[in-house]
Amino acid sequence: EAGVTQSPTHLIKTRGQQATLRCSPISGHTSVYWYQQALGLGLQFLLWYDEGEERNRGNFPPRFSGRQFPNYSSELNVNALELEDSALYLCASTGTYETGELFFGEGSRLTVL
Amino acid sequence: KQEVTQIPAALSVPEGENLVLNCSFTDSAIYNLQWFRQDPGKGLTSLLLIQSSQREQTSGRLNASLDKSSGRSTLYIAASQPGDSATYLCAVSLGGSYIPTFGRGTSLIVHP
User: Fold this and answer.
1) Which chain A residues are Cβ-neighbours of B31 within 8 angstroms?
2) Strand, helix or coil at B84?
3) In whole angstroms, what is the distance from residue B11 CA to residue B63 CA?
4) Which of B32, B44, B105 faces A104 most closely, judged by CB atoms?
5) What is the pLDDT of residues B45-88, one digit of tens each?
6) Which of A92, A108, B31, B104 is deepest in the core (most CB within 10 A)?
């Protein structure tokens, strides 16, 4: 069974551009979480989607946004990129957010020049 | 706001030692706690999940315990091997918010 998959693996952008990152959860999982892991920092919660709805968002500016599709895959959009957006973006899925185990993808490395 | 602290931040040990990694949290109203390992530049691999009603979980050489009243969890690694070298993270989920909060991790090096 396929795990959580993320694309692209690496992405290089310049300041002011937009980036789109994609995540496919494990089959049957309806909840998707996005985290940012910048160098030297811990995992910071970005967004949580469940059953197609945004359930919660972390303390990030509005230029970080996303959505979840009917097949439960998700995308994260970052507009007006800044240098400090350079980070590993991790997606995780779970089948039952109340008690379920969280499974992560390999991440998308975004570099902003 | 839940805060999660992991001690020590880094650990270097010779192969074969038994290890204890610590995770503490400020709000005891958790519904689960999960331990992960992360290899450099990679995603997180789930190791153990402990529900709030459980005291411990075991998988192979790994054993994780949970003491909600004291706000602590420990990950015990028996007979460490060089392949155990990685960063170990714990994540705590509060009942009602369902947003896992992560500690900064413990960077472990096991040398031959």
Assistant:
1) 98-99
2) helix
3) 18
4) B44
5) 999 999 999 999 999 999 999 999 999 999 999 999 999 999 99
6) A92
